[in-house]
Amino acid sequence: MTVTANATSRLGARELTLAYEERTVVEGLDLDVPDGRVTVIVGPNACGKSTLLRALGRLLKPARGSVLLDGEELARIPTRRVAQSLGLLPQTPVAPEAITVADLVARGRQPHQRWWQQWSEDDERAVADAMARTDVAALADRQVDELSGGQRQRVWIAMALAQETDLLLLDEPTTYLDISHQVEVLDLVRRLNHERGRTVVAVLHDLNQAARYADHLVAMKAGRVVAEGRPSDVVRAELVREVFGLEAVVVPDPVTGGPMVVPGRPWEG
Ligand SMILES: Nc1ncnc2c1ncn2[C@@H]1O[C@H](COP(=O)(O)OP(=O)(O)OP(=O)(O)O)[C@@H](O)[C@H]1O
Ligand SMILES: [Mg+2]
């Protein structure tokens, strides 16, 4: 299955192979991230989702093949230009010690700063906007390492948003969040996408959230893309079995009408 026929793609991978020393994790992968859409990557633990996202964000160099941004090899584009186009929130980001929330979010503005102008009104606005949208404004003066897991995750999302890039890569942005903050963050991602035309690639574990929020769903297994396309085309019981080894039924989501995965009966003894 492929992307809707006329979708263009600024970011993609060509025969991409990724490895950690001897261990190959992703092999010969081709991907076109559709512009102005929300792409969600799903797949079992250790199948290479984070590895792929890190390569798309230039945190990891391809062993073979390439990542292309606007037709250019990502590895050859100056760091600053990459950072102005592309924001990446890793799965487990590490904050500098004793940094406040406001200071961490402000770091998202670094790619936009110049030596003659360290901080502009634009920076101020972007930071305030990102903090308001992620509901962390009240935490501004707190230290990041003193926050709860969910608060910290929203602060990282705020930092990525403050970067105001056209392309946003988010690795499990909802993992530590309670259900209402999960929905809030995913709605926010959709809103950014719709109102500002942002292209988003997110790794999610919850298949039902993936089906609800993705325009384009990519299912990975053992470092390869097994299926991709619209959730309504891709999410089927056979795919869940093939990718996750899980027996499940797929029924219409009572709210959206899209596919909803319901795992088989729990163990009852
Ligand atoms: N820095 C590293 N050095 C060596 N091996 C690594 C490194 N990071 C990841 N790996 C290995 O690469 C494989 C893929 O890891 P990756 O983090 O991409 O998986 P994932 O699909 O994101 O999984 P999860 O759902 O658990 O986050 C795993 O076998 C992992 O052990
Ligand atoms: Mg991961």
List the helices and strands and how they pair.
Elements: E1 11-20, E2 23-33, E3 38-42, H1 49-56, E4 64-69, E5 72-73, H2 79-85, E6 86-89, H3 101-107, H4 121-133, H5 149-162, E7 167-171, H6 179-196, E8 199-203, H7 207-213, E9 216-221, E10 224-229, H8 231-234, H9 237-244, E11 248-252, E12 259-263
Helix pairs in contact: 3-5, 4-5
General description of the model:
This protein is of the alpha/beta class. The chain has one domain (11-263): Rossmann fold. The chain has nine helices and twelve strands. The protein has helices at residues 49-56, 79-85, 101-107, 121-133, 149-162, 179-196, 207-213, 231-234, 237-244, and strands spanning 11-20, 23-33, 38-42, 64-69, 72-73, 86-89, 167-171, 199-203, 216-221, 224-229, 248-252, 259-263. The strands form three sheets. It has a six-stranded mixed sheet, sandwiched between helices. Strands 2-1-4-5 form a four-stranded antiparallel sheet, covered by helices on one side. The longest helix is centred in the C-terminal third of the chain and has 18 residues, at 179-196. It is globular. The chain starts with 10 loop residues before the first strand and ends in a 6-residue tail after the last strand. Mean pLDDT is 93; it is low at 1-5. It binds adenosine-5'-triphosphate (ATP) and magnesium ion. Adenosine-5'-triphosphate is lined by residues 20, 23, 25, 43, 45-51, 91. GO terms for molecular function: ATP binding; ATP hydrolysis activity.
